[in-house]
């Protein structure tokens, strides 16, 4: 492992427990001067001391990991990029995140509130401009709040995953029978109206309405999700309260947790992970074996981080043709920019031109990190002529050091530097000035779409 210099985090833990340096040093069986050097980042936190810290202070040593740091660094860089006069370097941002993650998150919360206020101001301005007095201000987006919570937990929720694994038979008929034990009746709903394509639960009548167009596998997933809200309501509520979600995000958080439970029921952890290892993470084989879709397998693979029995750490993304990212989960240190969009050279967008095919790409980020990505288009929606459908591209990636564990690395020379395609976090925050696909200048350079200096007039 790399050297961990996070002395301020350790100092904060010590002060929260009202311990002196001498007292904590004695508990860790080290000298006070050694502890003082660690807190001042003059010495790194070794594995042995990390384990002792976890034992004596009752914390998970993962709080000193760099998993969450990568996302925080990228988010902070985006935030500071909105202030052209801000004199902050990448090194300073990394130091802030490593030593004071609480301050870093507070900066992001301030940015989020600023954006919320700006959006509402724009809505009010629009209201007065066009004379429409009935305009309603849209509530702030809660997707990022829920997504950040899941990523901070490496997308693994042990409190729900283990109970889900105990259910056993996850077929639609078995789950329907289990719901009936709770007095719940499952009925088909019409595929029209505002609730099209969604499950609806009438708590008073104990009726679960499911869209007629759902496949048997999709019906099983929705029934499992409702089952989680019935049998583990206290656990879900405790998780939501502990995470301190905003009031507008609580319902979305409950939905995300119920869907997590459903995925864990349909793809039970140990059996699914063993199957994945046996077939070297061949997604189509796994989908066929468990009777689920390509996207469901990719989504579940991004959650396989049970302590002591973890799977391949992967990144999972779902995008549409317009480049909107509707799902983004990372079990490792990878993060796409929120403000800068995504890169047109990324293989996920190529998937729309090759329906049904699994594409692969070795891609290198500007910081030198390299990953193996696979992508495939997926389509869903009701059957029938001219019936509305949904089309997405699904991408799954892992660090190049772990790529040999995937069947998709077969035939690729992972060590050849010219194999990797240079991609970035999006034009706004990408430093690659020589990129042929650049749409507009990076805020970190003087590059322009034509290759001229942005500060120099064109001839």
TrEMBL record:
Residues 10-64 form the HTH cro/C1-type domain. It holds the Pfam family HTH_3. GO terms for molecular function: DNA binding; DNA-binding transcription factor activity. InterPro entries: Cro/C1-type_HTH, HTH_RamB, IrrE_HExxH, Lambda_DNA-bd_dom_sf, ScfR_C, TransReg_Diox_bact_type. GO terms for cellular component: cytosol. Keywords: DNA-binding, Transcription, Transcription regulation. Signal peptide: none annotated. Belongs to the short-chain fatty acyl-CoA assimilation regulator (ScfR) family. This is Transcriptional regulator, XRE family. It comes from Duganella sacchari.
């Amino acid at each position: 492992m790399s050297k961990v210099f996070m002395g301020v985090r350790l100092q904060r833990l010590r002060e929260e427990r009202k311990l002196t340096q001498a007292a904590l040093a004695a508990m860790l069986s080290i000298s006070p001067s050694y502890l003082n050097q660690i807190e001042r980042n003059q010495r790194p936190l070794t594995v042995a001391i990390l384990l002792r810290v976890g034992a004596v202070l009752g914390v998970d040593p993962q709080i000193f990991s760099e998993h969450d740091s990568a996302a925080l660094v990228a988010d902070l860089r985006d935030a500071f990029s909105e202030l052209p006069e801000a004199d902050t370097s990448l090194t300073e941002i990394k130091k802030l995140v490593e030593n004071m993650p609480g301050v870093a998150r507070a900066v992001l919360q301030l940015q989020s509130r600023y954006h919320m206020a700006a959006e509402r101001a724009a809505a009010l301005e629009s209201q007065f401009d066009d004379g429409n007095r009935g305009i309603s201000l849209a509530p702030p987006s809660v997707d990022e709040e829920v997504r950040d919570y899941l990523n901070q937990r490496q997308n693994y929720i042990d409190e729900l995953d283990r109970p889900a694994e105990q259910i056993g038979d996850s077929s639609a008929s078995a789950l329907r029978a289990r719901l009936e034990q709770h007095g719940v009746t499952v009925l088909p709903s019409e595929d029209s109206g505002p609730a099209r394509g969604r499950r609806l639960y009438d708590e008073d009548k104990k009726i679960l309405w499911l869209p007629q167009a759902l496949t048997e596998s999709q019906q099983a997933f929705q029934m499992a999700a409702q089952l989680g809200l019935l049998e583990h309501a206290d656990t879900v509520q405790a998780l939501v309260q502990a995470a301190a979600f905003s009031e507008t995000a609580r319902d979305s958080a409950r939905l995300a947790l119920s869907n997590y439970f459903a995925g864990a029921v349909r793809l039970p952890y140990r059996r699914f992970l063993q199957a994945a290892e046996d077939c070297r993470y061949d997604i189509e084989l796994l989908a066929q074996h468990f009777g689920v879709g390509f996207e469901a397998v990719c989504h579940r693979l991004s959650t396989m981080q049970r302590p002591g029995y973890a799977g391949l750490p992967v990144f999972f993304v779902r995008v549409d043709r317009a480049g909107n990212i509707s799902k983004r989960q990372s079990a490792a240190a990878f993060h796409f920019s929120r403000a800068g969009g995504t890169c047109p050279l990324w293989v996920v967008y190529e998937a729309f031109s090759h329906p049904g095919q699994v594409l692969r790409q070795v891609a290198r980020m500007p910081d030198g990190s390299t990953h193996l990505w696979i992508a495939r288009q997926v389509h869903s929606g009701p059957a029938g002529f001219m019936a509305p459908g949904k089309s997405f591209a699904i991408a799954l990636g892992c660090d190049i050091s772990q790529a040999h564990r995937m069947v998709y690395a077969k035939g690729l020379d992972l060590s050849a530097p010219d194999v990797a395609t240079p991609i970035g976090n999006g034009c706004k925050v990408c430093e690659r000035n020589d990129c042929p696909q650049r749409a507009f200048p990076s805020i970190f350079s003087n590059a322009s779409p034509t290759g001229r200096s942005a500060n120099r007039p064109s001839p």
